[in-house]
Amino acid sequence: MCNSQQSVLLSVPFDQVNLFNLMLPILFTVNFVATAIMVGVIWTIQLVHYPFFHRVDKDNYNLHMDEHREKISYIVIPVMLAELSSAISLVVIKSRYQSEFIAGLVLLLFIWISTAVLQVPLHSRLAKGYTPTEVQKLVKSNWIRTVLWSIRLTLLLYILVQSSFMRLL
Question: Which residues constitute the domain of residue 54?
């Protein structure tokens, strides 16, 4: 352990040091797994699911969209909340990867903003009925989330590899 880490750790009561040491790997694991799940989901949505919106029966399109929003929510809402809460916690708990955790949280905030400002309104308009331009806007705008989540996972993989390598030294 370097001197700066020792001085930070020595300024914190002993019981908090142990708590931080226990919490960091748990929070990182939750964050990593949630991000990995969301990367798998978003790539599937981007490459398979959203393009099929063009092929759904137009007479029942609004029913399909309602069912899609309801069922996908059971998957993505708990995972996204776990990802967000663990990302915030990783920033709050100081570590040697503080700047990487902040960058990851910033990426996640942009994902949430994109979801709220772009994808949710597009889904709401599509729930009223099919329009090819709205589906195309959804597919194009969703690349924002697809790329940002992929960058987040790459960043977390970098941290994982670096922290594993550091243990070997």
Answer: 3-168
Q: What is the pTM of this model?
A: 0.85
Answer whether 45's CB lies under 8 Å from 142's CB: yes
Closest by CA position to 101, among listed 46, 156, 162? 156
Instruction: Give 51-91 pLDDT, tens digit per residue.
Output: 999 999 888 898 889 899 999 999 999 999 999 999 999 99
Q: Return the sign of the alpha-carbon dihedral for residues 135, 139, 144, 149.
A: positive
DSSP code of 12? S
- What total number of domains does the chain contain? 1
Are the C-beta atoms of 96 and 58 separated by less than 8 Å? no
Q: Which residue, 93, 80, 108, 107, is CA-closest to 26?
A: 93
**Residue 156: count of CB within 10 angstroms of its CB:** 24
Cα 60 from Cα 115, distance rounded (Å): 25
